[in-house]
């Protein structure tokens, strides 16, 4: 239950948090969803992440309890960008801002990060790193999975730690700096991700048909006809079908994988693939 307290007892601004504490909280943010639930979502993981900073800021036990109480309220944001919110909230806690203001800023900061995080990581970084590492794996190199993990985590951890320090230094100004061009940035990242997926479909889409239409001594090879219309037409059709199912029918990735498996087995069984 939310507390009715609107301000802390000790209103003297606290000392700046040092880099060691900021890095410690950035590391603890990896456990943001360790106690995920449908009542308060990531709230427990959020408090676990920032509590080293709160202990440094609030030397009064009552103030610390009050801060922990309102930081256990509903919280949900992109897990890779959570340090952006952490830095802002901690800067307000350090200045001993009014608690309703801290609550409002926390909600305002966590909101837009979902779309931005998805555009950066799932629509751009994952397709690029997976495409490079998959090519290595297809060529028989054992480096494939290691390259993927290295590329993804270098960017992931770099963003996580950088946002922690930058947003703490900027305070509430970080929200304006992020949201000013958030729409354009998200759109640009999404377009880049779509281009990457399209390129991967063209390069690695290997689905083809072995079907031949009898025509005397020169049977018509259906795959050659399709290639004459558009190379990689079957992989493109499958990709567009899966996109349509996900977007319009709310299919999950697991359902899509199952569909592709069934189509592959049936197609091989009847002699189409």
Distance between the termini: 60 Å
Write the H/E string, N to C: HHHHHHHHHEEHHH
Strand content: under 5%
Low-confidence stretches: none
What is the makeup of the main sheet?
2 strands, antiparallel
Q: Averaged pLDDT, please?
A: 84
Helical content (DSSP H or I, runs of 4+): 55-70%
Write down the Rg. Answer: 25 Å
How many helix segments? 12
Shape: elongated
Beta-strand segment tally: 2
Specify the structural class.
mainly alpha
Strand order of the largest sheet: 1-2
Give a brief rundown of this model:
68% of the residues lie in helices and 1% in strands.
List keywords for this structure.
single chain; 273 residues; mainly alpha; two-stranded antiparallel ribbon; 2 strands
Structure characterization notes:
By secondary structure, the chain is an all-alpha fold. Among the domains are: 93 residues, no CATH class; 66 residues, no CATH class. The protein is built from 12 helices and 2 strands. Strands 1-2 form a two-stranded antiparallel ribbon. The model has no long low-confidence stretch (mean pLDDT 84).
Blueprint of the fold:
Blueprint: H1 19-28, H2 43-57, H3 61-70, H4 82-94, H5 99-110, H6 113-138, H7 143-170, H8 173-179, H9 182-204, E1 212-213, E2 220-221, H10 222-229, H11 233-248, H12 253-270
Antiparallel strand pairs: 1-2
Helix pairs in contact: 1-2, 1-7, 2-4, 4-5, 4-7, 6-7, 6-9
